[in-house]
Design brief:
Helix content is 75%, strand content 0%. It has four helices and no strands. The protein starts with a helix and ends with a helix.
C-alpha cells in the first residue's frame, strides 16, 4: 500500500490514502461491502472474476450455438415429417383410386 501511495503515474494526481486502500481491498477481497458502504466502487474486478466472467460468456455462446443447432434440426425434421405425410396421403389416394376403379363397372 505504501508503494502505491508513494508512486504516481505521469500526468495523474497522486492517489489519496482512501483510494489506495480501496484499490488494495478490491484486489484482495471477494466482495467488499465495506467499500460499497463508503461509496467506492470496485474500479476493476479481480483477474479470477474476469476469467470467470469470460468463461461464462464462452459457455453461454456455446450453449446458444447448441440451441440454434437443435432448433435447426427440429425444423428440418418437422419439414421432413410434413413431406412424408403428403407423400403418404398421395400414395393412399392413388391406392383408393385404383381400388375404386376396380370395383366400379366400366
Amino acid at each position: 500500500m505504501e508503494n502505491m501511495l508513494s508512486t504516481s503515474t505521469d500526468g495523474e494526481e497522486p492517489k489519496s490514502a482512501a483510494q489506495v486502500v480501496a484499490d488494495v481491498l478490491a484486489e484482495n477481497t471477494k466482495k467488499s461491502r465495506f467499500l460499497q458502504n463508503l461509496g467506492f466502487q470496485n474500479a476493476r474486478p479481480r483477474s479470477s472474476e474476469q476469467s470467470s466472467e469470460i468463461e461464462l460468456e464462452v459457455d453461454n455462446a456455446k450453449l446458444r450455438m447448441q440451441v440454434a443447432d437443435l432448433l435447426n434440426k427440429v425444423q428440418e425434421s418437422e419439414q421432413a415429417r410434413i413431406i412424408d405425410r403428403e407423400e403418404m396421403k398421395r400414395s393412399q389416394e392413388a391406392k383408393l383410386n385404383l381400388l375404386l376403379s376396380q370395383i366400379q363397372p366400366s
